[in-house]
Structure formats: structure tokens, C-alpha cells
Design brief:
about 25% helix, globular, five-stranded mixed beta sheet, alpha/beta, eight-stranded mixed beta sheet
Length: about 290
């Protein structure tokens, strides 16, 4: 497992009984996590002192309760990057801190490429990967279907002093965008993909990751340059293992471009137990130039 262990403004304090206790800057939150199936003792007194607690509803969704109302939003930092954090109605805060391990890997790959790199970030959310790649010197195309998420990402870019970097901000359906980019003949040296497990398209189309991911990755081959640098595929779907994603990248990318494929879980260190909480999976294809 690859672990995001270089945070200073975020800390996973403890996990128990289907929940995680986290510190985001100066704000402590409790959020549900389906991976936390153990029922260990909640020894830390911070469980009782959390500022906010997200409660699942039996009818779906959920809501926050607050012992101490946090600001509507606040900023946390990761290296040179700054992110605006705020609790949403879907338990999220606008950031997946475990992805920092991938940000670091991609930034290093771009800095060591020795050539200009153009990156396509699909399902790009609030821009963590976009900002990491732009700060490392890449030109980035940031695509997400949610206008609010793209605006949030732009705000994060401004907070990180990256507004003047070559970033295209696109509100669009990712599948349709790839098809249009292929017709336009536009090419990218690196692709990042962080698709949802389930969703609906603008026309009511059902998106289910297990059924849709292979043709989506296959379609991305049409927009890859002749000398691609990397392809990063993330998943939070428990049924889609790192090995399955790695196999896909093997047959679709390694067969065409050589290089190597690595696939593993990513996670966050837990202070109380000393263990690591698995938080998803990543498969990476990279060119033979990266060792």
C-alpha cells in the first residue's frame, strides 16, 4: 500500500465503528467510512470533542450536527498547494487527502520528464491533481461535469497562486469531451481519471464504474500523444481491485506503448492505532523513461 504520510494540516486521528475521526486544520470532524468495519475502543477524548459529526440517514443521504460551528470554509495546505475545505451535504469536504500520494508521484514524473507535458484530468473534482501537475510545470485540461466543482477548483488554484498557469477549465461530460477532443485531434501526454462509482448523466444515463470504465479508458487512447508519460486511474469502488485496474492498463497501454504498470491500494496513517486505513485503489501506467 502507498501511504499519504506527508500531510501537516490534515491528520486521521482514529477510526472505529464505521467512522473516522479527522483533523482538518483546526477543525475536527467525524465522518462515516464503510471500510471501518472494526469496533475498537474510542479511547481518544477527541471523539467527544469533535466540532462536527456527519450522520447517515436511513432514507439515504445524511446531515451534519455541530458541537462547535466551524467557518463556512477554511484553508489547509499541502506543500505549495492551498485548498479550501468545507463540509458538504454528502459528507465530503472537497478534498480526498489520500490522493496526496498520487499528487507527489505525478509532480515528480512531470518535473523529471525533460520535456513539456500536457495533462488531461478527467472527473477532476476540486482540482487536487490539477494543481499538483500545474505547479510541477505541466499544461493541464481540467474536466468535470459539475459546474460548482470546477469553480471550487478555480478558487483552489487562486489560493495556490496558480491562476496564471496554463489550465483549461472545462464543464462537460467526460466521455463526450474525450470523443470531441479525439475528433479535434488534440493530444495529451498524461491522463488522470478519478471516476465515480455510480452516477447519472445529463440525459439520465446510468453510469456504473464496473460496466463503463474499460470503454472509457479505451477511448482515451485516441487522445494520447505518441510518447505518453503516464496514465493514472483511481477507484473508490471496493469491487474494483488494484489488480483488475492494473490488468486493464496492461492490455490497453503497455501493449501499445511498452512501459510499466503499478497497481496498489492507497491509504492514510491512523495516529491512534498506528495502522493504515485503505482509502481506494490506484493503477498507474508509466513510460519506460520513468524508473
Amino acid at each position: 500500500m502507498r501511504v499519504a504520510e506527508h500531510w501537516q494540516d490534515y491528520l486521521l486521528l482514529d477510526t472505529s465503528c464505521g467512522e473516522r475521526l479527522e483533523r482538518w486544520g483546526n477543525v475536527t470532524l467525524i465522518r462515516p467510512d464503510p471500510q471501518v468495519i472494526w469496533q475498537t475502543s474510542k479511547a481518544s477524548p477527541l471523539w467527544q470533542k469533535a466540532d462536527g459529526h456527519y450522520h447517515r440517514s436511513k432514507s439515504g443521504g445524511g446531515s451534519w450536527s455541530y458541537a462547535k460551528m466551524p467557518p463556512e470554509s477554511w484553508n489547509i495546505h499541502y506543500g505549495a498547494l492551498t485548498f479550501q475545505v468545507r463540509p458538504t451535504g454528502f459528507k465530503h469536504t472537497g478534498l480526498f487527502p489520500e490522493q496526496a500520494v498520487n499528487w507527489d508521484w505525478m509532480a515528480d514524473a512531470i518535473r523529471n520528464a525533460g520535456r513539456p507535458i500536457r495533462v488531461l484530468n478527467l472527473f477532476a473534482y476540486t482540482g487536487g491533481a490539477t494543481l499538483a501537475c500545474a505547479e510541477a510545470g505541466a499544461e493541464v485540461c481540467h474536466v468535470d461535469a459539475a459546474k460548482g466543482m470546477v469553480q471550487w477548483a478555480r478558487e483552489n488554484a487562486a489560493l495556490s497562486a496558480l491562476s496564471d498557469k496554463p489550465i483549461r477549465w472545462i464543464v462537460d461530460d467526460c466521455e463526450k469531451f474525450i470523443q470531441r477532443e479525439a475528433r479535434r485531434g488534440r493530444k495529451y501526454d498524461a491522463i488522470i481519471m478519478d471516476p465515480p462509482s455510480y452516477g447519472r448523466g445529463p440525459g439520465g444515463e446510468i453510469w456504473k464504474l464496473e460496466n463503463s470504465i474499460y470503454p472509457l479508458v479505451e477511448g482515451c487512447l485516441n487522445v494520447l500523444s505518441q510518447q505518453p508519460l503516464f496514465f493514472v486511474l483511481n477507484s473508490y469502488t471496493t469491487g474494483l481491485s488494484p489488480s483488475v485496474m492494473g490488468y486493464m492498463l496492461n492490455v490497453l497501454l503497455k501493449k501499445s506503448f511498452g512501459g510499466e504498470v503499478i497497481a496498489d491500494e492507497i491509504g492514510l496513517p491512523v495516529r491512534e492505532s498506528g495502522g493504515v486505513l485503505p482509502c481506494g485503489s490506484t493503477a498507474i501506467w508509466h513510460s519506460a523513461d520513468l524508473r
